[in-house]
Amino acid sequence: MGYRRAMSGVTDKDIRNLEDFSGIASDWFWETDAEHRFCYFSGRMEETTKICPDNLIGLRRDHFAEGYISDPKWRAHLEDLQNHRPFRNFEYEIERPTDGSSISIRISGQPFFDETGTFTGYRGIGHDITAEKEAMRQLLETNAALAERNEELDEARKALERSAYEDLLTGQLNRRAFERDLAAALSIPQTRSGLLHIDLDRFKWVNDTMGHPAGDAVLVTAAERICRVIDKGGTVYRVGGDEFMVILQPRMTTDAAVMIGDSIIEAMAEPIAHEHQNVTVGASIGLAFGKAGHISPAQLVTDADVALYEAKANGRNILCQINAEVQARIQAHRRMATDIPLAIERSEIVPYYQPQVHVGTGAVVGAEALVRWFHPTLGILQPRMFLDAASELGLMAEIDRLMLRQALEMTGRLRSNGQILPSISVNISAARLMDPNLPNDIESYWTDKRCRLSIELLETIYFDEMRETPQISENLNRLRELGVRIEIDDFGSGRASITGLLKIRPDRLKIDRSLIQSAVADPTTRNVVAAILDMTHSLGVEAMAEGAETRADIETIRALGCNVFQGYAVSHPLAEAELAAYLGTRHQSAAG
Fold first, then answer.
1. Do the bridges between strand 283-291 and strand 319-321 make them parallel or antiparallel, or are there none, so unpaired?
2. Could you report how far apart the first and last alpha carbons of the chain are, in Å?
3. What is the β-pairing status of strands 243-248 and 234-240?
4. Which residues are catalytic?
5. Cα angle at 181 between 231 and 303, to 5 degrees?
6. pLDDT tens digits for range 204-235
7. Any residues with CB less than 8 A from the CB of 528 and at least 6 apart, and which?
8. Among 3.40.50.360, 3.40.1410.10, 3.40.640.10, 3.30.70.270, what is the CATH number of 165-322?
9. CATH number of 3-128
10. Dihedral, CA atoms, 494, 500, 503, 504, nearest 10 degrees?
11. Closest CA to 81 of 114, 107, 57
């Protein structure tokens, strides 16, 4: 809590805004009235200087100039105050009333005026530089006999000042510098400030699978690339982990900011070399603007965070800008995210099953378990509406475990009713694939092996790198020993290479629905699908077509020589009871 006295022209809202600033600032905030008497200090001042604000409230700034009136710096400062001019980084000393010790202060201030243009006082930022001054004094005393080394001493002083604001790994400015500079930028009247919040995609994957040296190499390279793109368009800060902030130059247009952001994304898409191996990450960016006097630093950061969240929710590797629609959607998303743990506990997260059919005979050869949320008020929710939130909460492995158990229990119930499902496919996330308990869970749940079990891996899991991860490699080997088949889902939509496929050695590729649907009318896509099928045949890998929605899709699949497909042309995803009825109908049709 800060200290304050009544000040003409200052509203309670002003005070609350100032206290909002003081709650997030690294330094302290102060305020004087129209007579230059101190009337406010934020709580950080007493914490830092050990001076009770009550000892300073009511004193004028020129009180501290006594004995220094001939000092040109003080004369210039007092002239600034007299003429109501803003000032930056003015330094002076005061004595602590408690013990008489000296403390050095660096302050910056901004004059304020009421609606009539009448000067009402100053507000500003203070910073304790006693330790810095003492270090500089000792440094100068030690080297007093070596006057010719003044240039070296100056460089040492600059390095000392920078050290508190520099990220040791990347050499960029740190979070403390960011908070300082953002507060300063938003203290300049009528200035519009822009903020880019950059988050590296897949950085946790790199750290977890390749080790911290690889992660450090990625961060250093990312900082270099961001700085190269920004050039003189703003200032780059590493604010923690794999997050970077950029305070854009004042008065930069939105279009220019978007162009810079897009260039950063393009630069970060390039592979990063580390110990003879290429690492591919990426960047998602949130963009927000705010005008001095209309937004606090904390709110501008929050807006950029929300925009970044939207970029991640829309597939990553893109830039999003904050707007009212985005804010409303994110708030709804966050409300839903709070319900996910309870939904898991209540078994509201359930599998629906899409049949897989042989193109020649029409026989059901299996089904894929697809996650759904049976929401008590919103109905059945598609995975795109909640899986991103579940991933951010670290719940994907738990949902995968739940889907696996329920799907295998379902096949047992079908068999007990005399219905046979030849195979069941269950999706596995990257987090679950890293889980050392995965093989044990499967061995525990998969008691009736007359129904084959396949796990489906998204093609976008980066197969070129995942096989090099010991835990993943061990899990895949153990799953094969158990008889589990490995499938690559959505092939043709992501990043898998032939080399990556050879490392994984999948049993089946599922060709992405976009390729299947496009192949009907586009000869080029048709040739691509034919080439994929040729590749699977030569590798001894089965192929399945996804997304067959029309009779034309099925005929195209048949003509290309793909034997198995799934899609709305034969069935939507079905609840367990609906699947049982569907299998009964198919059996009767086959019997007739």
1. parallel
2. 82
3. antiparallel
4. 242
5. 85
6. 888 777 788 888 999 999 999 999 999 989 99
7. 492, 515, 519
8. 3.30.70.270
9. 3.30.450.20
10. 0
11. 107
